[in-house]
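Progress report, Aim 2. The chain analyzed during this reporting quarter is listed below.
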Amino acid sequence: MVATITSEAEALEVARGFAVSLAREASRRDAERLLPAEEVEQLSASGLLGITVPRAFGGADVSIAALAEVFRLLAIGDPNVAQIPQSHFAYVNVLRHQGSDEQKSLLFSEVLSGRRFGNAQSELGTKTVAEIRTSLVRSDDDSFILSGVKHYCTGALFAHWIPVLAVGEDAKNYVAYVRADAPGVTVVDDWDGMGQRTTASGSVHLDDVQVDAGLVVPHHLTFTGPQLYGAVAQVIHAAIDVGIARAALADGTHFVRARSRPWWESGASTAVEDPLTIQHVGELEIQVRGAEALLAEGAALVDRSAANLTDESAAEASIAVATAKVAGARAAVDVSSAIFELAGTRASLQADNLNRHWRNARTHTLHDPVRWKVQHIGRYALNGTYPPRHGQL
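Predicted structure tokens for the chain:
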């Protein structure tokens, strides 16, 4: 039975409760690489996967600000589980903007029934990550044949539908919505990253998969005018990073309170009275709060831009989200490393698995380089140059 969420307040309440339950076994799942099959089913049953479906099709149609907060909360509980539906929401967004009414009716109904979208987007061996070789060729019966191999396919192992980014015969990009159990589709559990270990980010092999023409969406049209697709996708990634930072700081300070000793030169009787520890925690708290505030601001600007979408408003929102992504990535990596200096040698013991926060942060923040976001932010601030239109901005 899948719950129906009808408001932003309800979505946030459900996310808070679910995040608490995720946190209980997050460390064990990471340590033993236990894929969160049960937790993903609970995510579907919660109704959270349908919160961005438009109201006209039965969804809550929550704001991007609310969506960002949902992901931040889930990432505090377990950033692995939080990352699994990132692509789900990205491809719901593709449908919102480029899907036909028939496609929306069919696939949004699937989403509201608890069906999950995975993804098959990235490829290995190409000159750049933007190059796509997976082909979509029209067959004699007006369907399409899909062929290629995809990697880093987060969530595909748990998906009911796998949206596939492919190149058509016109050399333009399309998204084909493929059933995960369709003939010719093989999902391989071969993700072996040091962090985000249970995101189900395996490979997808597509061997002459037949796709109905009614399940193909012209994704290339997304970037022909002002767009927020990239900003929405990026605000979710930023929310995951910010959630990792908050969880790392919470676990680190808990360790200090419960198990750390003061450095003898401080003269303090407990670790929490050590003035240098207090100073360091204060600095980290400021960094995390700053990232949280920038996340909220970026998401709010996406909502504001969507209400009056122009090149100028889209650029402002994109730059705000890019700023949040840079701050969130830095906070996640910095804080998850700094907690060991705060907590001391005992915190490095594998039994406590505090290093999972750093491994998760370091892995997830590699998704797309923040150094290029800094470039776009600088060009916009200095010269008023609008950022390019693509899915990472």
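Residues 10 and 48 are 10 Å apart (CA to CA). The domain at 135-221 is CATH 2.40.110.10 (Butyryl-CoA Dehydrogenase, subunit A; domain 2). These observations will guide the mutagenesis work planned for the next reporting period.
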